[in-house]
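Appendix B. Raw example, untouched.
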Amino acid sequence: MAFDPASDGFMLIAAALVFIMTPGLALFYGGMVNKKNAVAMMMQNFFSAGWTTVIWVLFGFTLAFAPDIAGIIGNCNYVALFNLTPNTLYSNGAISMYTFMIYQLMFAIITPVLMTGAFADRMRFKGFIVFLTLWLFLIYFPFAHWLWGGGFLAQWGVEDFAGGIVVHVSAGFGALASVFFLGKRLHPKPGNHSVPLIVLGTALLWFGWFGFNAGSALRVDADTNVAFINTMIAASFAAITWMFWDYAVGKKWSSIGFMTGSIAGLATITPAAGFVNPQAAMIIGITAALVSHWVVDFVHKKGWDDALDVWGVHGIGGFTGIILLGIFGSAAINGANGLIYGGVDFFGKQIAADLFTAAYAFGVTYGILWLVNKITPLRVPEEEEEAGLDATEYDVPAYFDE
C-alpha cells in the first residue's frame, strides 16, 4: 500500500481528538471531586501531557514500537526519535512513522491519568510524578509492545483494537491496586461539586473517542467507518441502559448515571470497535452498562474507596470488552472469528490475555506504589487532606470563597 496523504492527514486529526480527551478527563474528574481538590485533580491530568511527552519521545516510543526483542520490549533504534524521518513509513505503508508516533503518544498521555480518579483527594503531587514515571516504564510501554508493537500477545493472536487491555485494563486494575494501597479517604467528598463540568468533560471524552477508536484503524478505509459507527452505538446503548437502571432503583433521572454509562460503553467497545458488526456493538453497549453498574454497586457495598469508580468503569469495561471481542469478533469485519463464529481458540486466548494482564497491572502497580512510598510519602497528612490539596500543594484554588 502506497503512502496515503488522506490517511496521514486523518491520523493527525485523530491524534488531536485523542489529545482533547485528556482535558476532557480533567473536567470530568474535576467536576466529581470536592471543589477544594479540583485544581489538584486537573493538574494531575494535564501534567501527564507534558511529562509523558518528554518520556515518550526519549524512551517510550522505542520501547513500545521499535523492532521486537524476544516478544517483551522494543529495542533502542528510536531513542530520542533517531532513525526516523517524515518519510519513514509505518508498516502499513499508508502513514508516516512521525504520525504514528504522535498518535500513540496521545494514548500514553491519557492512560495513566485514568487512575487519578481512584486515588482522588489523597496523593501527593511529588509522589504522583514518581509513580507516573515508573508506571509508564513498567506497565504502559510493555503493554503497548505486547499488543500493538509485535510482542508476544500479538504473536499469539490476541486482539485489542484500540486499548481494552493496553489502556483500560492496565489503568483500571492499577487503579484498584491504588485503592487498596492508599486506603480510604478520611474526609470523602460531599457529592459532585459541578455537574456542568462533568457534562462538558463527558462531551469532550465522547467526541475524542471517535479519534481514539476510528483512528486505531491507522488509515482511512471501511474499518475506520465500522469503528466510528460502533463507538457511537455502544456509548449510546450503555448510557441509556445505565440511566434507566438508576431510574428503576431511585425513581429519579440520573444525569451522572447517563454520563457514567456512556463512558462505560466507550471503554467496553474500545477493544472490539473495528472487529465487530453494529449489532454486536449494541449488545456490547448494553452489557457494558449492566456489568459495570453491578461492579460499581459492589465496590460501594464493600466500602472500597475507588473515589470516581475507575475500576468498575474502565477496568471492568476494558476487561469485559476483551471477552466480548472473543465472542463477537468477525473475520468478515477485520479480525479473527469469535466464539459465535466457531473461534473457540481465539475466545480462549482473549480470556487468558485478559486474566494475565489484569493480574500483572494490579500486582506491578501495587509494587510501584510500595516502592514510591519508600522514596517519598504518597499520602498527604490528615490536616492537608482536611484542608484540601488545592490549598496545600498548589498556588491558586479553583474557587475563591467569599
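End of appendix B.
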